[in-house]
Amino acid sequence: MSMNSGKTAVVTGASSGIGRATAEALAQAGFTVFGTSRRKASNGPDGVTMLVCDVTDGEAVAALVSTVLSRTGRIDLLVNNAGVGLLGGAEEFSIAQVQALFDVNLFGVIRMINAMLPSMRRRGEGRIINIGSVLGLVPAPYSAHYSAVKHALEGYSESLDHEVRAFNIRVSVIEPAFVRTVFDQNGIEPDSLLKEYDQARAGFKALLADVMPKADRPEMVADAVVKAATDARPRRRYTVGKAARQVSLLRRFAPAEMFDKTLRKQFRLPI
Ligand SMILES: NC(=O)c1ccc[n+]([C@@H]2O[C@H](COP(=O)([O-])OP(=O)(O)OC[C@H]3O[C@@H](n4cnc5c(N)ncnc54)[C@H](OP(=O)(O)O)[C@@H]3O)[C@@H](O)[C@H]2O)c1
Fold first, then answer.
1. pLDDT along the chain (271 residues), means of 10
2. What family classification does the UniProt entry report for this protein (predicted)?
């Protein structure tokens, strides 16, 4: 019998990509897994019970928590994975678009955590794992709002980890680089495309076309989540894959000017 049997995990955004792979990997590791999607899923991940929940809807989040608690009586692990992207020049996106991004990628996480913490606190144990990004460590061009929301997630997660450790609850952030999912295709187009960014956009799209086919597999992120969920002493951050590890190391140890040049070169920007 697995040491995780009897433990319950909730994974948001389990209908595709990283969330789907993570829900399956946790089920294989012995957890009883509930995955979420905004739509009723006909073919969810193997061994995972799918429930409908939009993380921007507080009532839907409360209903999700009470459904899971009524079925299993406990939530040991919450994986906040649901997320959307905004790729383009910062000024091309309307405030409404940026607010919608934050509503899913940050406030959605906070809604889920606020709804689940009381039961974790009462039981005196729990793990929360937030899916961040290397863009939460390094701001990159044409991802200003996405970089902002992933930086916010890093700050929120680290603060929360200090607060809830007293209740035997730990918070970790998983930091992948590019991962082969439909994430870039699901990215929201800017409300006002500006021709001044046409050339930069073409460079950025060329970069994506170059890196995406060689990007990391979602299963690599799923493995990191299982590790963070089961490590006796979980780390606050888990980078995933070679590219993310390199970026994280360079950010900390390379001279700022050299880092700036390398990044601009990668994004095909004049140095
Ligand atoms: N792919 C990458 O290169 C990459 C790199 C680093 C980090 N990440 C992060 O990894 C996470 C997952 O991304 P992915 O690449 O796996 O993308 P994906 O395949 O597009 O999956 C996104 C998931 O989020 C769910 N979702 C979107 N809006 C939602 C909402 N309002 N409420 C509830 N669920 C919602 C979607 O579910 P439904 O549409 O079924 O509702 C879907 O299951 C995101 O947080 C992303 O920022 C991705």
1. 88 98 98 97 90 98 98 98 94 98 98 98 98 96 96 98 98 97 86 92 85 94 98 98 95 95 88 86
2. Belongs to the short-chain dehydrogenases/reductases (SDR) family.
Q: Which of 208, 216, 215 is nearest to 185 (CA)?
A: 208
- Residue 181 sits in a domain whose CATH number is 3.40.50.720
Owning domain of residue 150: 8-266
Pocket test for ligand 1, best of 10, 11, 12, 16 (most atoms within 8 A of CB): 16
pTM: 0.97
- Distance (Å) of CA 207 to CA 86, 183, 188, 267: 16, 15, 18, 7
**146 catalytic per annotation:** yes
Q: Whose CA is nearest to atom 2 of ligand 1?
A: 179
Total tally of structural domains belonging to the chain: 1
